[in-house]
Specification:
CATH topology of one domain: Nucleotidyltransferase, domain 5
Radius of gyration: 23 Å
Mean pLDDT: 92
Bound molecules: adenosine-5'-triphosphate, magnesium ion
CATH superfamily of one domain: ATPase, nucleotide binding domain
CATH class of one domain: Alpha Beta
Oligomer: single chain
């Protein structure tokens, strides 16, 4: 019997642009992009869905574009969540699993996850994922996969990624109204890391910075795992708006100045910037543009550095920072960022994606492509399990108990 074709969809509802990418999943597990689309967003503020009138329309239009290109119907997707409410909390817990030599089961793993998380995440927050750093069995640490091992006392050290429940709820509502079921929610910058950050970089220590239009997301990896994620509520559109205000021009002209002429290598030219609009000619002083861009960039990277410090990784990432998102296309940004954060900085771009993909090999597509991979991984892990989605891709079977974590997992069904 021929196996049903499987496909995965990533939907990135950005503050300025909503993007979707669809890929078919081959028998070998390889994903080939068969459709994508982008539509200007409406109804978001600083990464957060703020109203439920326009986003569903935008989502629907974007998905119809993907369907038109792929010839396939989209009903489910992995969707981004963004905003400065996204947080990362270190937790640990300990449980007795029975007499000595007890074999660790799915139920034990579910129970330890519940014990580690219990009481540590406020009731108004939703857990997006639980990243296990290590399990400790009878005092022996460094265990990545305790399933099937023997012992009497199980401990877990983990990282909980959570977000404000009403903000999660609004994404679900907007998607449902846009005829889409949300398979899982993942922070924009974490999703982007799936296509940008290599395993070696994650092992050595690296930071990914998603420079969006209204937010700047940060994800820090070390020892192979996501150690921290947070969002600075300032983005590249703030540069545009500042230019418009200071130069007394309209946002469209300010955007053109930023994209065509601005650079983060300040004082490199003293030639006036001239923009033509029909018969009108606008002239701006380079020095003034530099001042505005520099002030905002300084604020953005101060925010990034604050998060690095908070996470304990200030000047302490051997692989440095990788920049993605539309804002990372500002000329010479990596030179400026390097001086600000005192780390190596490089630009990230999705690469090596199969299918009709040339047009999406751009830093602003990293989140949507990453979400497509998240959707594929979710489907693979959840063929017979609900626990996998939250346990960072570890293979386990469906938990039996109706505990805290299994309740939490109901949403992902
Ligand atoms: N060549 C360029 N130079 C500078 N900035 C650019 C360039 N191209 C795009 N941008 C900026 O990138 C931003 C859009 O990036 P992106 O699409 O990643 O944001 P978003 O996902 O919609 O927003 P967010 O992630 O904050 O919700 C805009 O502010 C745009 O002006
Ligand atoms: Mg974005």
């Amino acid at each position: 019997m021929e196996e049903k074709a499987r496909f995965a969809v990533g939907l990135d509802i950005g503050t300025s642009t909503t993007r979707a990418v669809m890929g078919t999943i081959g028998h070998d597990g390889k994903i080939s992009v068969v459709g994508f689309g982008e539509v200007p967003s409406e109804g978001l503020r600083r990464g957060i869905v703020k109203e439920l009138m326009s986003p569903p329309r935008v989502i629907d239009t974007c998905l119809r574009a993907v369907e038109g290109m792929s010839g396939l119907e989209v009903n489910d997707a992995a969707v981004n969540i963004n905003g400065s409410h996204i947080g990362s909390t270190k937790v640990d817990g300990m449980i007795a699993v029975g007499v000595a030599d007890h074999e660790i089961t799915d139920e034990d793993i579910n129970r330890i996850a519940e014990a580690a998380v219990a009481g540590k995440i406020p009731a108004n927050r939703e857990i997006l994922s639980l990243v296990p750093y290590e399990y400790v069995l009878d005092g022996q640490g460094g265990i990545k996969e305790p399933f099937g091992m023997h012992g009497a006392r199980l401990e877990l050290r983990a990282n909980v990624i959570s977000a404000l429940s009403p903000d999660c709820e609004n994404i679900h509502k907007a998607c449902e109204a846009g005829n889409l079921h949300v398979r899982l929610l993942e922070p924009s910058v974490v999703a982007a890391s799936r296509v940008i950050v290599t395993n070696t970089q994650k092992e050595n220590g690296v930071g990914l910075v998603d420079m969006g239009s209204a937010t700047t997301g940060v994800a820090i990896f070390d020892e192979g795992e996501l150690q921290f994620t947070g969002v600075v509520p300032i983005g590249s559109n703030d540069i545009t708006n500042d230019l418009a205000t200071v130069l007394k021009t309209v946002p469209e002209v300010a955007e053109e100045i930023k994209i065509r002429f601005a650079s983060a290598k300040f004082g490199s030219s003293d030639k006036d910037i001239v923009i033509k609009r029909g018969r009108e000619e606008y002239r701006f002083r380079r020095e003034e543009v530099d001042e505005v861009v520099e002030a905002r960039l300084e604020e953005i990277f101060e925010g990034v550095r604050k998060l690095l410090k908070h996470a304990g990784y200030d000047k302490r990432l051997p692989e440095g920072l990788i920049l993605v998102g539309g804002g990372s296309k500002l000329r010479d940004i990596e030179i400026y960022a390097r001086n600000q954060v005192e780390l190596a900085v490089r630009l990230g771009k999705p690469e090596g994606i199969l299918g009709v993909s040339e047009e999406i090999m751009k830093p602003e597509y990293a989140t949507a492509i990453g979400l497509m991979f998240a959707d594929a991984e979710y489907q693979e892990n959840n063929k017979g399990s609900v626990l996998d989605g939250i346990m960072n891709g570890k293979k386990q079977k469906k938990p039996k108990g109706e505990g805290f974590l299994s309740m939490l997992l109901q949403k992902f069904k």
